[in-house]
Amino acid sequence: MAPHDLRRPFKRAAISDQQRRRELSLQRQAQNRRDAQHQARFLAHTILSLQNDSTEPEQELESAPQVEQQAQDFDVRQAARLRGPEARRCFAKQLMLPEWMIDVPERLNTDWYVCARPAGKRCFVVSSNGTTVSRLRNGSMLHRFPSALPNGARTNNSSRSGQSYCILDCIFHEPDQTYYVIDMVCWAGMSLYECTAEFRFFWLNSKLVETGACNDPSPYHRYRFMTILIYNCDQEGLTAAYAGPAPYVKDGLLFYNKHAHYQPGNTPLVLVWKDESCSQYVIDTDSKGQIPDQQQVVLELLDDGRLATSDDPSIIFGCLEQDFIQKTELQAGNLLRFAISEGGLCFADGKLERADLHYLGKPNRARAFADSYSKVIFQYTARHSPLRIEHLLASINSVNEEENTDMVG
Amino acid sequence: MALEITQYLLSAQSPDAKVRTEAETILRQFQEQNLPGFLLSLSVELSNDGKPTESRRLAGIVLKNSLDAKETERKEQLLQQWVAIDLSFKSQIKASLLNTLSSSVREASHTASQVVAKIASIEIPRKEWLELVPSLLANMTQPDRPPSLKQATLETLGYVCEEISHEDLVQDEVNAVLTAVVQGMNVSELNPEVRLAATKALYNALDFARTNFDNEMERNYIMKVICDAALAKEIEIRQAAFECLVSIASTYYEVLEPYMQRIFELTSNAVRGDEDAVALQAVEFWSSICDEELEMQDYEVPQSGDSSPPHSQFIQKALPTLVPLLLETLLKQDEDQDQDDGIWNLAMAGGTCLGLVARTVGDAVVTLVMPFVETNISKTDWRSREAATYAFGSILEGPSIEKLSPMVNAGLEFLLNAMSDVNSHVKDTTAWTLSRIFELLHSPATGFSVITPANLQRILGVLLESIKDAPHVAEKVCGAIYFLAQGYEDAGPSSSLLTPYLTDILNSLITTAERTDGGDSKLSSSAYDTLNEVVRCTNLSETSQIIAKLLPAIMSKLEQTLSLQIVSSDDREKQGDLQASLCGVLQVIIQKLSSADETKPIILQVADQIMLLFLNVFACRSSTVHEEAMLAFGALAYATGPGFEKYMQEFYKYLEMGLHNFEEYQVCAISVGVVGDICRALDDKVLPYCDGIMTHLLKDLSSSELHRSVKPPIFSCFGDIALAIGEHFDKYIAYALPMMQSASEVCAQMDYSDEEMIDYGNQLRRSIFEAYSGILQGFKNSKVELMLPHAPHLLQFIELVAKDEQRDEGVTKAAVAVLGDLADALGSNIKTLFENCKFCTLLLRECLQSDDEQLKETATWAQGMIGRAFSASG
């Protein structure tokens, strides 16, 4: 009687490599297939269809809400190759700009995140073609350097597709020479423009560390990148962001609406707020670092002499007389600096009715934009009746109380 | 009408080829022109005691082969052929077969009983030949029948039971059959031939006896008869009786309790005093009990359910007496047991059983075995030393690491010394024990290993010396090195420990592979297999130089096989084996070196040469392709990427050969996998070959001959092709999509109660999703509208899968991914499609809550895509 088939190999050297080779091949193929599909899923967004926001001021009429603007394909890879002013113009429009918090949004504790904003230079960091470039808000270049971001250095994993690139929204923090990433716009070729903040932060937190971008600087990774702690904007989270420790100097708080997409330009779905205890720069200073007696604003001169904020649609603060324009040789599109005089700002029905403006001159040439409405108002209230942390906490608590009462009732 | 065919049957066995061929031709013509007449003539020939044994024997064989075949296709064909035969012919054939059972020529009645069973296997499930069982039983009950007829009848009953399912007989028939069989087994049966036939018949009838085993009285009686037969005077009867006990151990484990005392006595007496053939079955009984208990332990369910069979702890209870019994067997080695792979003796069976016992009871076995080891391991006779070592090696799996590690640590040096024992059996078993130790107690990745930086040098020193020993010892040493290396796979920094020895290890293995004293190529392939594992597990950043040097050495070895002189088919087989091993090694090296950017150029530099070599290896065979060379090609395509294009034209014909190799389905499956590699390497440059490839793949899918396991990879491959050639896949849509849809319908109707089918169903579903994913992504930028009409079907399929609780994680991942692909590719078109898809939300939610990060990521992405599609206008 022959032995049981299962028994025979007990004392035989039971190594057979062939099956193992087959299995390992299959595993490799499955992995490669996953990678290929993964790449296909993300690469298709390489050709980003960003909305062209080159709207002329004339079009700002409050006509039909959200007129479909002519979409224009915008290829970041192309843009990354741009140099000089062209690049500046291109990138200057890509950052999402928070409005200033002038009143507390509804559902703050459920629909919003909060984080402590690092003090420093807001910039766009783009890695592509084996190099990494950071550009300031006005589009000018801050650094060009190798980094561990995907395709951020020549020595980087060369098997990575040349189409792979990243765009991060960062604040460069001088004291520790670190880029703090406050948002992720594109990652390894995948566009996150149309993804919610919730998703973008999830992706940011799960991807950035993997690449080694958070490691200490090295010859192929000149600057360190760091994520920041993002909290749910409840009592605890808000307190932590406001008063808790951070590895960087704080400059106010940032609030992100969880459902908002990344949207170039001003948005009310990301808000910035500050007070003296979480920022050194609550009230704007002049070029000498002094707080001027009167609040200063920068507005854009329109063709017809009106003075507009950078908002879209913009808010009109007043109108310059043609005589004055001719006399001072100002041109439409110029940015102009004004002081708000004793008359201050007058509101009616929550809308700006009149501003007592006093022309000071042209602002620093590095300025690319006029002030936004919310900034002007935030600065104005900061000088008069600031929105305090207590108000924010109270609005969270009042919601909680309402809920509690509901439950009791 | 039966024809006289004796002369042809005899001539067909003539040593004269011409005579033989002529006779065969005539018989074949007869068979083709008049099958019923032909079969009848054969049965008449078989039944006629006046005919020569030789012609009757061949008649029986041809008859059997006209009724049954191994391959399912052929079997079904023969069945239909028999069913179609005219009833009167069939009756005559069956009558003459039953008649043959009473033949005094033993060979004729034996053959007839087999043919009867073949016909029964066709007719009884169809509710035909209902008179067969009664007429057989009549042979047993009528007093005047000769013992030879009873013997043939019992044999026939046994074969019939073996052929048919227990559902084909009603309980009355089962009772009658069992009664007849058990009667024949009884001590009162004085004819030993009859008693043996009855015992063998019972073995086949046991599956039918479920109802009878549930009845205590009947069970007691059957068990008594078996136990009595286990003490019969004739060794064959005793062996057959123990075989029945082995079968009962697994079939009726749950009712064995009352009989265990008696069985223990029987088995231990048999092991100690009976012939080997009987003793082996006695040991096998205990091995089968271990199998049962291990399986129960593996599938241990919480105590709540009363449907699970009870675990009777037979091994645990018998342990104090069973273990000494098994240890005794270890001393009964054969002198030449390590020379011949076919040998199975009491010592091996005992050691195997001891290994199973250790796995069943764990720690408890250790204290019972160790005294035996300690007493015997230093004795002067080799049997004691070998048995002690074998006992030690056998209990290494099962007991806890805590229990084992002090003993293994203490014994390791002893074992290393024993590698220079004077006796080669001792060395053989010692090397095997070392390989078990490294397999089971050497896992630096999880923080435990008996191998330390301090003893590694000593261990390797001994192994590399012993690998020069006799071939059978060297083979076991290869095993030890294999597992030693394997431990360092993914072991992080500790894999560096092996680096200083790598060159020596590789050289020793190559030298071993080149040895010619092994007789066959087993030692050579063990050495190469071990080499592969060593290469795989080395720390590449430290060893790339060494591996880079190994590459040309192996290439030149493969080169040399091309000019081997091939005279006989034996030579060809040897060449094939050697090429398989060397292609395997090259495949492993290619994969290892191309896994890192720093070392990939090493492969790319010699890619042309490797490619040429592989093509030459392919050319060594005319009709089949070399599986290993095919695998290696895939690895190379992956490494070279787009550069593979220039080899494609040459390679293509072999790829085609592989793709239509239905018989060796492994080769076909591997070729399908390689198509995927090529697609990813060449991207749209694969386009010129796609018509051909798709034709083969579609043909494969519609073939009923091809093993089903190849079908899922083919669907995945559709995805690979679509992803590579993008919009150009449009011309295959009309062919591929219906296949995918009908396969998804097959999935819907699959029987998911069978574990194997669950597994296959999961593979198939995942692969269909992968096909869709590839096509959707491939079309995304241009021809996505082609997929719009197919989207509802896909969604339905996803829904079906989403609602199935037996889907595995891989299927879930693929389902969520394809959902995202659908949204990604079709954009706002999905709005209406997704409107009522509650399951999407549920599926996404389930995935987002998963612990599997990859799944969560895919789901988040899919959710993002769906959200984007809904927020997009248009």
UniProtKB/TrEMBL annotation, chain A:
InterPro entries, alphabetized: Snurportin-1, Snurportin1_C
Domain Snurportin-1 m3G cap-binding: 94-271
Top-rank taxon: Eukaryota
Keywords attached to this entry: Cytoplasm, Nucleus, Receptor, RNA-binding, Transport
GO biological process: snRNA import into nucleus
Pfam families, A to Z: SPN1_m3Gcap_bd (PF21974)
GO CC annotations on file: cytoplasm; nucleus
Described function: Functions as an U snRNP-specific nuclear import adapter. Involved in the trimethylguanosine (m3G)-cap-dependent nuclear import of U snRNPs. Binds specifically to the terminal m3G-cap U snRNAs.
Name of the protein in its database record: Snurportin-1
Organism: Handroanthus impetiginosus
From TrEMBL, chain B:
Record keywords: Cytoplasm, Protein transport, Repeat, Transport
UniProt-listed GO biological process terms: protein import into nucleus
Gene Ontology MF, one: small GTPase binding
Classification via Pfam families: HEAT_EZ, IBN_N, TPR_IMB1
Domain Importin N-terminal stretches: 23-103
Subcellular location: Cytoplasm
UniProt xrefs under SUPFAM superfamilies: ARM repeat (SSF48371)
Chief place of localization: cytoplasm
Listed GO CC annotations: cytoplasm
Family that this chain belongs to: Belongs to the importin beta family. Importin beta-1 subfamily.
Protein name: Karyopherin (Importin) beta 1
Organism, scientific name: Handroanthus impetiginosus
